[in-house]
């Protein structure tokens, strides 16, 4: 794992894989956490390797909420903004007894006020743990249908207290989590990821343009280091309309990152148009550890092997070569 990240240290900023803030935050088997001393020590090997290569790395912190199964969370019932099951959503489990594989998620229980305060504290502590582990900062994963997204989007939240109903209330959990993290480690070390138009993991908002421009405006007061927008959730999804991007650009006053199905040409266009300050690349980096060099020089990109993305060992992860010019 340390080798994989270090190979990609020429990125302007590495954002780690999603990392659990607690045992209840886990959505998928074989995914990492950052809530125990042993996990902090393990991540220190990664951050040291990246820094030794001159790179910078943020930890992406997540709680999946309802997007899990009891087998992944010690037999507990998942928690969410409301007791609403995510339909047609599966997660990967490995319970040590049955064959590992994908199963349907189950209905969560609605979080109590005490649950909400406990999770806010877990986010705060995870941010501190990330800094102890040597990360340069953290990215709060508030996108892709996971817990914070379940509070934001109207179709996943039918609460009747101060965390549900109005848009102001649905954004309250995001607001309080960000505030706790900023207080703990500083605004210059906190980024936030949102996904306004994706429907991944069953979250849908009735008025996404208004919801997410308000979310962007809300984040201004925290003076976080960046806002990261995930645009698409499947390969043939329509592009985010430029009018929506412009609305977000007008609403948010800080560094704006977009990610999702970009190539070098589209990335340059988005930055030149002023819609984005930075562009994130995910899958292209898997097979191209030297991606910035390839883009800068117009070298061809290698294709990753989908079958080796999850599980296994070195194959398909750290055995992709850098580009070599022919003699």
UniProtKB/TrEMBL annotation:
One protein family per Pfam: Oxidored_FMN
Domain NADH:flavin oxidoreductase/NADH oxidase N-terminal: residue ranges: 1-300
Single GO cellular component term: cytosol
Cofactor requirement: FMN
Swiss-Prot/TrEMBL keywords: Oxidoreductase
Top-level division of the source organism's lineage: Bacteria
GO molecular function: FMN binding; oxidoreductase activity, acting on the CH-CH group of donors, NAD or NADP as acceptor
InterPro entries registered for this protein in UniProt: Aldolase_TIM, OxRdtase_FMN_N, Oye-like
UniProt keyword DNA damage present: no
Record carries keyword Cell wall biogenesis/degradation: no
Similarity comment text for this entry: Belongs to the NADH:flavin oxidoreductase/NADH oxidase family.
The name this protein goes by in its record: N-ethylmaleimide reductase
Organism, as annotated: Photobacterium profundum (strain SS9)
